[in-house]
Amino acid sequence: MTDRSDIARQAVIAAACIVALVVGAILLAGANPLSVAIGIGERALFTRSGFLEAVLRSIPLTILGLGIALAFRARVFNIGMDGQLIAGSVVAMALAPLVPLDAFGLLLLLSGGIVGGAAWGGIAGVIKGRFGGNEIIATIMLNYVALQILSWLVRGPMQETMRIIPRSDPLDAALRLPILFEATRIHAGLLIALAAVVAVAILARRSRYGFKLAVVGANAHAARYAGIDPRWIAGSVLTLSGALAGLAGAVEITGIYGRLQEGFAPGFGITAIAVALVARLNPLLVPVSALGFSLLYAGLGTLARNGVVPFPIINILEGAIIFVFLAGSVYVAHRAKRGQAETADG
Amino acid sequence: MDEALFLSGLLAAGIRLATPIALAAIGETISQRAGVINVGIEGIMLVGAFVAVLVTVSSGSPWAGLAAAILSGAAMGAIHAVFTVRLKAEQIVSGIALLFLGIGLSGYGFRLTLAQGGTAVQVPGFRELDLFGLAGVPIVGPILFGQHALIYLAVIGAALLAFMLSSTRLGLMIKAAGDYPQALDAAGGAVDRVRFLCVMASGAFAAAGGAFLSTAQLWGFVENMTAGRGFLAISCVVFARWNPLGAIVAALGFGIADALQIRMQAGYPGVPYQFFVIAPYVVAIVSLALASRGSRMPAALGTAFSPQR
């Protein structure tokens, strides 16, 4: 069909325009796009600090990306992972004075993070599952609420004893995730992230629940006939992805920062969307994608600090990557010789 | 008398605070009526806000800034339209990408231009009108006669749009594109062309909302200054059941909640200000839970159209 190859051709043009937009933006800053690309690669892949920074960043991005992948599989669009991450961190931090100062206490903090994130995601889950409200709006509104509550907590009830800087007192060393490799900051959160990959992969691809997610994602209407309640799925998967976001928050707190403060994990929940989409919502590919984005960040961050390009180039790139990825999947779908019949809800 | 003055000031401020949300909500209503969700209007508002300030500063005219913002918004809308209408890609994902792009482009452009000077740039923005010289009349004057020109234009625009949707051929085509595109196609209407134009219009309106924010409500651009207004606009569309006039009323609700929380911050210094700042967001969350039940959205909303041949 000419119509089909026409769409494939347009997808290529659209992707080319998006790439041209990024190149144009870099040129506008008076930088050379080629040397920017080389600079990113050099810094991220061939310097020790750049690579370690990327690995460190990929830990929370992997856990968050898994949560996004789970929810998006059911076409439930959780874009409020930043708020859920904050909720998890706050609960973990609030538990700190109450738990024993040993590995069990650390485990309790991480569990607290999971519960906090699940609760925050669960609010959106109730709005979506019980009342049929749009989860995109609910989760993003809850982001703003969480940000403000955090801002209050670190200036009020959870502020450090000295009461100078808006941040909490540090965690006891016994409640910190151990460092895995000498002379780096790579902490045991890496193992937690990898365990989460395995767990989510099994859940998504081998369990009844994972199958239900896929059915609801493919066709919520048909799912109802199969005895699956799409609303329950939506509510539960929002809670579940919130739990992962909360875990990511607790890992960041116990692994890197050791205290609660504003502006940690900035925009990670949003980046995680790009991570999960590029991984094609496949849990096993999420860590790869997360590392890729982290390398990009590490490289670009250096260039931005050196004043080569303004930092928001990273947001432009994230958007561009998703657009190019979208165009790519359109191209593949319409180029395939034996593609499925076009459907109205394609 | 004091209460009346307080209420009058509250309402006048509420209208001002509601306008960016209302403009974006009008645009989103058009796009969703035609069957396309645009969750990226927050990003478009940011681009509109930035472009408006940039062009206002360089040309000296806020109207030139507004025009440039509208053009940039239509262009952003066209990107979304290419991906959702032409390529039939997932609308939500394309909208999320547009959001990133808008955050990035506005912040990037800002740091390359206006932020370079070091000191805050003077923005010769919009001033409130004084219609018929009646703005000074107590109580009703500031509300009815002392607003920005864009506010009157927004209300007139929403009314015209409501009429267009309910009583014209074009309105019928837009609604058909969103409710039952097969019927429009069978009747010889170009579903994709109608949708494409509606998505571009949503971008133009969102950018006008951003321009109002940065050249009328405030005079200047700050990164991420929209702070969720684009998403509040989307919720207005749902609360108003896809009616443009209703969307304005819903936006007014958010505007008044915002105006009220600002006044209460000053009135209750003992209460942490963050609890007031979250008010509009909490209002949105609660009304989302209350108002979504049984809402009748356009039947083909969110689905790409492919003619069956």
UniProtKB/TrEMBL annotation, chain A:
* Segments crossing the lipid bilayer: 12-34, 54-72, 79-98, 104-124, 136-154, 186-204, 232-257, 263-279, 284-304, 310-333
InterPro entries recorded: ABC_transp_permease (IPR001851)
Q: How does it sit in the membrane?
A: Multi-pass membrane protein
Q: Does Protein transport appear among the keywords?
A: no
Record key words, sorted: Cell membrane, Membrane, Transmembrane, Transmembrane helix
Q: Which Pfam families match?
A: BPD_transp_2
Keyword Transmembrane recorded:
yes
Give its localization.
Cell membrane
Q: Name the CDD domains for this protein.
A: TM_PBP1_transp_TpRbsC_like (cd06580)
The organism sits in which domain of life? Bacteria
Renumbered to this chain, the signal peptide range is none
Q: Tell me which PANTHER family the record gives.
A: ABC TRANSPORTER, PERMEASE PROTEIN, GUANOSINE ABC TRANSPORTER PERMEASE PROTEIN NUPP
**The name this protein goes by in its record:** ABC transporter permease
Which species?
Answer: Aquibium pacificus
